[in-house]
Amino acid sequence: MSDLDRVLAAVDADLDASLERLFALLRIPSISTDSAYAAECRRAGQWLADDLAGLGFEAKLNDTPGHPIVTGRSDTGAARRVMFYGHYDVQPVDPLDLWNSPPFEPRIATSAEGVKQIVARGSADDKGQVMTFVEACRAFVKVTGKLPVDVTVMVEGEEESGSANIAPFIAAHTDALKADLALVCDTGMWDPETPAIILSLRGLMHDEIVVRCADRDLHSGYYGGAAANPLHVLSKIIAEVHGPDGRIAIPGFYDGVIEPPDYMKASWADLDLTPENFLGPIGLSGPIGEKDRSLVEMISSRPTFEVNGMWGGYIGEGSKTVIPAIATAKISCRLVANQDPVQVRDAVRAFVRSRLPADCSVEFLGGEGSAAVAVAHDNPDLARAAQALAAEWGKPPVTIGEGGSIPVVGQFKKLLGQDTLLVGFSLDDDRIHSPNEKYDLASFHKGIRSWVRILAALAG
Amino acid sequence: MSDLDRVLAAVDADLDASLERLFALLRIPSISTDSAYAAECRRAGQWLADDLAGLGFEAKLNDTPGHPIVTGRSDTGAARRVMFYGHYDVQPVDPLDLWNSPPFEPRIATSAEGVKQIVARGSADDKGQVMTFVEACRAFVKVTGKLPVDVTVMVEGEEESGSANIAPFIAAHTDALKADLALVCDTGMWDPETPAIILSLRGLMHDEIVVRCADRDLHSGYYGGAAANPLHVLSKIIAEVHGPDGRIAIPGFYDGVIEPPDYMKASWADLDLTPENFLGPIGLSGPIGEKDRSLVEMISSRPTFEVNGMWGGYIGEGSKTVIPAIATAKISCRLVANQDPVQVRDAVRAFVRSRLPADCSVEFLGGEGSAAVAVAHDNPDLARAAQALAAEWGKPPVTIGEGGSIPVVGQFKKLLGQDTLLVGFSLDDDRIHSPNEKYDLASFHKGIRSWVRILAALAG
């Protein structure tokens, strides 16, 4: 029996204990965007640092102006070093009443199709995925006494709230963090049978638009018909963002956007991605994007504008005949290669200002965001990882662009000069960011086994 | 000294005590639209019933399926009987942080211009106005031992939440409530020096529009660009309600709308109502209504469509890259003569449905509403009241249509066969339904004196 087979067997034998450890981490409500949970975020970070220390890592919790960053470093003199990145923070859980069980009381549920699932906030995004890597390391240490490559671990607590402190931290610790390759486990499978390696990530620009009309809330009986209503004004602006062709009508929005490279377009041809199988499971039928683009292009390689939240006026029980003074929208844009997030932010703001009635005003409360990144597709480690995944899953991974954003990947390239291998095991139906988030037990188990194989392959 | 002069002198002498009584009523947070305040609503009603009983009225609190209705009846054998209607409930107080002092701790403030003001929720709408009438009755009883006309008082507790129970109550008590004339004190002055009698009231139709797209909240990184966003869908529908000419583009919306009568148009010519003096004080400059209509027409004699509240997605601290599953808008329409509220509701709903993407759905949660009413302008009591107001204020009242809605006035005509005299003393800057609602001390004092004169005049 090879070392690799013995490590894989140890993963299988240790699965129940691995689950117990994951559940302990999932029980900590580390919601980073809400300051009420700051102590819980620290507790989650400390839990991870303690776990890494138990595996022989030199581990610690690094304070930042926000939530702390966990680092761990193994030094066994291996020929190569990889840096693993993940995040221990999770999304808010509202609307809480749509959860079938408390979000921070993890449990194993069995779906109607008989699939065993880990249900909890953070099960897929990203605690469950982080632990696939940690458990892979644990199995190597247990069976062979050491890791096949040296490993630096960096797990942050602000990925779901803008990652404001990770870039300064990397910049301040470039020597300690430098490695041959970065590994990230925060993405998905192509489908439950097919692994995926992500070759590009969209960027992200957040903003909050606050429109003010009258200087107070008004009685709609006295002023209705004459006074501007900021909910009407904001609705009209949002309605005009997308043209009838599905394109975003903001002047300058598409500046810098490049067409996807040929090797990526070629890979799309093999994908069975249809509106039915992509949108059907969430209760939709037709894609609403640009009419001349394919579905896979819309969700991976084209920029977007979304209203993530909007509110104004009376939103309580019953009715109130008010013309509100203020209307607010939280918006975000997914960005693709060569779009400048600052320029996009300025274009959005100019668009809003240009449509504002003369006696209304607007304030913008958002931040700057991150640019899209592409991973070099000819990096030889990609081929090694692809072979490892093929061995575990019985079929080669799909290599695609991914619609989500992991801003830190751009920092790895810029500050550390290293490419990133993006491999993850979540599924489209994992309800990430939604009530009843889950992670298939198979994603967790075979995810650990996948990292065992990848780490062995990267050792060369 | 005449009886009238002695009663007016008693009003002046008793002003401080009158204020104390009003403050006691204002301290009761009788918010009818929020069921958490049901006991406070009852307490306000009971306070009024007790006060009326102290004036010799046969007074009681009448239970309804909602908040109770106060009735009081004087029987002194006078030649004529009037029925006074008002409401003891108040609007919600949010946003609470915009109040300069607690909304249910009434106080006298002095404005920058030196005007003394009663500041509290309900000071103008409608507790302060109700008490102008009650204090006028008190002064008569105190000085002359009786009222110049017999009086029936009916004060409800659900005017700010749809008045669901007042029409059934009237229908069940037509004999007890029938009078020669109804009096309502829930409207405004033309300006601080000029009284007003209201000849028409707009109707009101409420609805709540709930748009659903995907069957769960979605991650904007996975689905952004392809999945429908209900905030975009709802914004687009709302944006299309008003055409570029300011007209409401809902087919059938204007069905039945009649042009204002000539005597009303003639009265507008004398009014100095400009965008500067109407909208300037609330921080706006230009009216947003139909481009071919005058400002006074927009706010008194044309129907409206307003979004009173709207929400969807993540509205907490920080950001969340979610495509929400649901977006909601509370809307209301002010209606004018001959519009049918049920037909308008159906037209609004058909408009929304016609603009909904095929894979999205809509639900409507609102009620039916009330039609507009007009008061007979040749009723001889109008002339009597006008003379009484002219004597108090030194100038004749303006007779106009009013943009607000008091649905019960239509019931008085329909169920009791009586016209309504609408006289009130609130001002445009009273911040009705808004934070820091106030009622000028002069409105209260001269309001009491006005009712003394009107009651004397109506006795004939």
Automatic annotation (TrEMBL), chains A, B:
InterPro entries: Cyt/Met_Dipeptidase, Peptidase_M20, Peptidase_M20_dimer. Keywords: Hydrolase, Metal-binding, Protease. It comes from Ancylobacter mangrovi. Residues 203-359 form the Peptidase M20 dimerisation domain. This is M20/M25/M40 family metallo-hydrolase. It comes from the Bacteria. GO terms for molecular function: metal ion binding; peptidase activity. Pfam families: M20_dimer, Peptidase_M20. Gene3D superfamilies: 3.30.70.360, Zn peptidases. GO terms for biological process: proteolysis. SUPFAM superfamilies: Zn-dependent exopeptidases (SSF53187).
